[in-house]
């Protein structure tokens, strides 16, 4: 499970040590992207030699192919990649929302057509967590609504409220699975779950999002909606709601 030690601060800069189930990550850190379970053009041994400490996998693309049956055969993403250090998986939400005309957002989740075979699929908060349990990443991100920019304050507020509701559902599904009542194979019992702060460019909406997301009680938190793949790893700290805009 996750632990975080704040080692040093200087102004607004923070230096820390994040301990996950598959190892230690020094923060801040550059995280190579392995969308389909591999970093393009780089072998796992080379990533080790270059000093990579954590890599990112994409839930949506791994769900589409090679698929969960293949992941089950290998026993999770670490074995599939032959990478035995930490892995973070995003929820797949950004990729689904980027389908735009092919996707329909409801309170339940997002309905879309697969870009692989055209089949009708639905990504819900619960499903996003189930897929990440199969993958067995060390950090699993919740499903949030990726609102397009620009947006009005009212649009950002409505989207943020939905993201908070989805965050609660993600946490509830995660807890059920952890209690053995989820009907899902867990490949990494030490997986941590991160909530995501949204709110667009509106400070007051971000304040509301931060408070509500922290109240759910995740192991860590990320800053969403500022730039693509701009994940900020943080520990579960009470002052997050005041510091998230740093």
How would you describe what is shown here?
This protein is an alpha/beta fold. It has helices at 44-49, 59-64, 68-74, 77-81, 93-97, 125-135, 153-178, 203-216, 240-243, and strands at 3-10, 13-20, 23-27, 55-58, 87-90, 104-105, 110-113, 120-123, 139-141, 192-197, 220-223. Strands 4-5-9-10-11 form a five-stranded parallel sheet. The chain has a three-stranded antiparallel sheet with strand order 1-2-3, with no helix packed on it. A three-stranded antiparallel sheet has the order 6-7-8. The longest helix has 26 residues, at 153-178. The radius of gyration is 17 Å and the shape is globular. The model is unreliable at 228-239 (pLDDT under 50).
What is shown here, in short?
This protein is of the alpha/beta class and 246 residues long. The chain has helices at 44-49, 59-64, 68-74, 77-81, 93-97, 125-135, 153-178, 203-216, 240-243; strands at 3-10, 13-20, 23-27, 55-58, 87-90, 104-105, 110-113, 120-123, 139-141, 192-197, 220-223. The longest helix has 26 residues, at 153-178.
Q: Termini separation (Å)?
A: 26 Å
Instruction: Tell me the Rg in angstroms.
Output: 17 Å
Biggest sheet architecture: 5 strands, parallel
**Counting H and I runs of at least 4 residues, what is the number of helices?**
9
- Percent of sequence in beta strands: 15-25%
The residue ranges in which pLDDT falls below 50 over 5 or more consecutive positions are 228-239
How would you sum up the global shape? globular
For the largest sheet, list the strands in their spatial order.
4-5-9-10-11
Structural class: alpha/beta
By DSSP, the count of extended strands is 11
H/E order of the elements?
EEEHEHHHEHEEEHEHEHEH
What do the pLDDT scores average to? 88
Percent range of helical residues: 25-40%
């Amino acid at each position: 499970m996750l632990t975080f030690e704040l080692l040093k601060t200087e102004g607004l800069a923070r230096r820390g040590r994040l301990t996950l189930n598959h190892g230690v990550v020094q923060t801040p850190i550059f995280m190579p992207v392995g969308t389909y379970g591999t970093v393009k053009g780089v072998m796992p041994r080379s990533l080790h030699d270059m000093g990579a400490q954590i890599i990112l996998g994409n839930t949506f693309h791994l769900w589409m192919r090679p698929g969960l049956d293949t992941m089950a055969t290998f026993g999770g993403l670490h074995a599939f990649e032959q990478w035995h250090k930490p892995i973070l998986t995003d929820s797949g939400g950004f990729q689904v929302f980027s389908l735009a005309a092919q996707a329909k957002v409801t309170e339940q989740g997002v309905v879309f057509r697969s870009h692989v075979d055209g089949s009708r699929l639905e990504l819900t908060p619960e499903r996003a967590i189930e897929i990440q349990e199969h993958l067995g990443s060390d950090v699993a991100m919740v499903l949030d609504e990726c609102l397009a920019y620009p947006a009005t304050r009212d649009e950002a507020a409505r989207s943020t409220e939905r993201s908070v509701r989805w965050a609660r559902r993600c946490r509830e599904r995660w807890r059920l699975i952890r209690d053995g009542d989820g009907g899902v194979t867990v490949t990494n019992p030490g997986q941590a779950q991160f909530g995501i702060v949204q709110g667009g460019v509106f400070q007051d909406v971000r304040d509301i999002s931060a408070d509500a997301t922290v109240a759910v009680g995740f192991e860590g938190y990320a800053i969403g909606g500022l730039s693509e793949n701009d994940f900020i790893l943080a520990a579960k700290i009470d002052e997050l709601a005041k510091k998230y805009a740093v």
